[in-house]
Write a structure and sequence with these properties.
Bound molecules: uridine-diphosphate-N-acetylglucosamine, phosphoenolpyruvate
Family: Belongs to the EPSP synthase family. MurA subfamily.
GO molecular function: UDP-N-acetylglucosamine 1-carboxyvinyltransferase activity
Distance between the termini: 7 Å
Function: Cell wall formation. Adds enolpyruvyl to UDP-N-acetylglucosamine.
Radius of gyration: 21 Å
Helix content: 25-40%
Catalytic activity: phosphoenolpyruvate + UDP-N-acetyl-alpha-D-glucosamine = UDP-N-acetyl-3-O-(1-carboxyvinyl)-alpha-D-glucosamine + phosphate
Number of domains: 2
CATH class of the largest domain: Alpha Beta
Strand content: 25-35%
Protein name: UDP-N-acetylglucosamine 1-carboxyvinyltransferase
CATH topology of the largest domain: UDP-n-acetylglucosamine1-carboxyvinyl-transferase, Chain
Structural class: alpha+beta
Largest sheet: 4 strands, mixed
Amino acid sequence: MGRFIINGGIPLRGEVAVSGAKNSALPLLAACLLTEEEVVLHNCPRIGDVFSMQGILEKLGAHVRFSGNTICVAAKEIETVAMPEKLSKKIRSSIFLLGSMLGRMRRAVFQYPGGCEIGARPIDQHLDALRKLGVEIEEEMDTIHCRTEVLRGAHIRLSYPSVGATENAILAAMLAEGTTTIENAAREPEIVDLQNLLLAMGGKIRGAGNSRIVIEGVSRLHGAEHTCIPDRIEAGTFLAAAAVTRGELRLLSVNPGDVRGTIDILRGAGARIREEEDSLWIRVGGRLEPFHLTTNPYPDFPTDMQAQMCVVAALCNGVSRITETVFENRMRHIDELKKAGAEAEVKGHSAYISGVYSLHPADFTATDLRGGAALVLAALAAQGQSTVSRIEYIDRGYEALEYKLSSLGADIRREC
Ligand SMILES: CC(=O)N[C@H]1[C@@H](OP(=O)(O)OP(=O)(O)OC[C@H]2O[C@@H](n3ccc(=O)[nH]c3=O)[C@H](O)[C@@H]2O)O[C@H](CO)[C@@H](O)[C@@H]1O
Ligand SMILES: C=C(OP(=O)(O)O)C(=O)O
């Protein structure tokens, strides 16, 4: 457990390359179990959750080589159908392996996944989708036993466009007999990325990015090489960092279209933003105007950018309203931000944030991954020395954050 020590008040300036997307890399790594051949993923971020996923794959019997940002997974044989408990409980995305394990082995023994505490995060939709494909599921305390003789294509209608349930249903259906249709599927760019890897592996799938996905099961998938898409949440976090430090940044290796929600809000608030094919430029010269945003599934505003935008709002010229509809307990950073003089009140699912001219330094404690990133932004904005502890949350999802920020002029160091 370490902490960041940040001397804030310095406008960030310069160029920074955005890493591969955490929320793509994790389901892509799960997909690697669907073939005994090697799958090579480029642009894979070196972050805590990917290291945990690597550990799980190795415990299941896969050979994994992770060099630079390229990870090679060869799951020639799977040695156990039981997920390693400690690692599985560490990350939410261990649940994605359920679909792959059932596709490949027809059996799996699972623990409820871990991850950040941002809401109840049930997995009922994942399990309902798998039951539709013919999986028998027995839940015993914290352990879930899943088995099937044959996976059969089915018509699945999700009651909410859950990202994880969509990905799990896709992964299980790839090697099922017959056709699977997923209605009310999540439309996130990471689902399109998963489809692209599965197509490269010889799968038959279409429709990702729309709410209806159709999969024709095949009897086997083969190895492939694929590049993870850029992380739209990391990109959004850097845009917010430019806004709160009133700086000027150029983000490289980014898909501007995937960052639309954040770009539109910041532009509407007065930030100057230029979009190029795979880069973004932002300049913020003074205080931004207040804004209203509501998180919702893609293409609406992403919940994973809500906390960072609370810091932007904390420095705006008026009252902003930020409403969280995706997770029921994702406002814990607000109390931490108040330590730096933020004026905010949470009523129901909304935070009403009355912007102040400047934040002051404080000793913050990260409450979760994105909440932790928000506290780093607050510390960068506040003139003087702040600390952010429990940074293991932040390490789950941001690659080399302190190095990237230092290269933009920030005074930040890690203390272990
Ligand atoms: C690794 C990964 O990709 N994580 C992302 C994924 O999480 P994750 O896949 O867990 O998020 P979901 O889209 O599934 O969850 C959205 C909402 O649906 C609820 N729900 C979900 C499944 C289910 O079976 N039952 C149920 O009630 C959840 O509790 C939550 O309130 O999408 C979230 C929403 O964009 C992001 O914040 C996470 O960063
Ligand atoms: C909530 C997040 O991730 P996870 O679903 O992996 O907990 C996130 O990336 O903000």
